[in-house]
Structure formats: C-alpha cells, structure tokens
Amino acid sequence: MSEEESTVHLSESHTEMTEMLLPDDTNALGRALGGVVLHWMDICGAISAMRFANKQCVTASMDHVDFIAPIDVGEIAVINAYAFNTGETSVDVKVDVHSEDPRTGEKQETTTSFLTFVAIDDDGNPATVPEVACKTEAEKELRKEAVEKRQAELESIIERMTNDY
C-alpha cells in the first residue's frame, strides 16, 4: 500500500447533521433527553468514521459527556464530527453539538465528546484503517486541539479515579 493509500485527509471525514428537537424527544421541561443527544452523536460519529475508513464501523466507546447547555423544544441541534486519530483498526472521532434558535439565530454549545469506532470487514472482523493526514494548517490545528483535549480529559479521569480510591 502506498503512503497516499494508507492516509486519509481529516476533511474527508467531516460530517454535519441537523435535527429539530420535537416534543417526543424531550423531558418534562421541554428540553432534549440526554439519551437522544447521545444517539445523534453516535450516528454522526459513526458516519464520520465510515467516511474516513471507507468501511463499516461500530462503536467501541464514548468518552465522558457533560451536557453544558440545554436544547429546547423547537431548536435545531447541529452535530459535527471528524476523525482525528487512528489505531490499527480504530478511528477516534471528535463530536461537537450546539443548538440554534431558528427564530433568533442564537447559537449555543451544548456538549462535546470523543468516540472510538472499530472498522470491520465483510465478515465482521476488525479491519485496518488508514492514518489521518492533514493537508491544511486548519486541519493540523483541529487535530492538535482534539488530541490535546482528549489527553487532558483522560488525565483528569485518571486523577479523579486515583483520588477516589
């Protein structure tokens, strides 16, 4: 496999989904159920991973998730994802969610997480994936920020676990 065949540009994995929050997906306060938002994040992340790997991908893990702002009924959820790192058969994807009020245009960050997907072949076995390549400075910066933020979050989790035991 040539170097060009063994790499895929970060931008090729970019995926954006939009969803309108309807009453069936809300709690008693008219705000998005956390499970619904996680579902959207999983779908958007999986599409990003599949675009990157050019293979079927399944969810292996989702890192810590904090819901930092609500999405209210009638608002639009915008879910963005991109692949930023890989293992031999895994693809790490950063997924960001923000809400938009269609009446005012106001936007608000709601959550971010990192998901890991495993590429599988036609027989359902783990399959190798290409490495992430960055062709622009903007892509390099996106990747660097994602790697650093995930590392910081993992270190924070380890620290909390160590202090709790």
TrEMBL record:
Residues 135-164 form a coiled coil. The keyword Lipid metabolism does not apply. Keywords: Coiled coil, Hydrolase. Pfam families: 4HBT. GO terms for molecular function: fatty acyl-CoA hydrolase activity. Its EC number is 3.1.2.20. This is Acyl-CoA thioesterase.
